[in-house]
Amino acid sequence: APARSLTQRPHAGSFPPPVGGAPIPLRDRSVRRSADVVFFGRGGGPAVLTAELYYPKKDGSGLTTEERSIVVTETEARTTALVSAVLSALLEGPEDAGLYFPLPQGTQLLSADLEGGVCYVTLSAPFIAGALSRAEAKLLLYSIVDTLTGLDAVDSVYLLVEGETLSSYGGVNTAAQLEFSDALLAPEHRS
After folding, report:
1. Treating both helix axes as pointing N-terminal to C-terminal, what angle do 78-91 and 134-148 enclose, rounded to 10 degrees?
2. What span, in angstroms and rounded, lies between the C-alpha atoms of 132 and 145?
3. What is the pLDDT of residue 129?
């Protein structure tokens, strides 16, 4: 039998191609871990970006930064993929033993979308079910907000849990977009 090119095969114009005659179901959005997302740089190789991730210090003095190198590829939706990779790196927790991340166990990133400078972050239900003190909840919230607003394309963050708006979290009004705040930064980072 002669070989066929991909364009000569049945269903060549459909995406995703069917498997066993049935289409493969795809989600509208996918969540990527920092290790999954790679952009190709000008030379065709992966681009390595350095992101500042904000974590609380164990000594209680506030938020500080930890630099993390993130390898990124993907040519579509570069900004959304970058936001997702940075947020996934943050949620993995700090590498420095002097820092911690009070993320309630079982919390997952469901989506991170960017529209007009606003980053819409949707987390799973354990985010609000965890038994955090008000102070820890506020540190967790601003770890996310300050990290994401450190990216050039992000002006503010809107937090959702399972697609629903929260009225408040850690004593902070989360029904509105949140912007970078230096109020919780450790003294060495305040301006």
Report:
1. 150
2. 18
3. 86
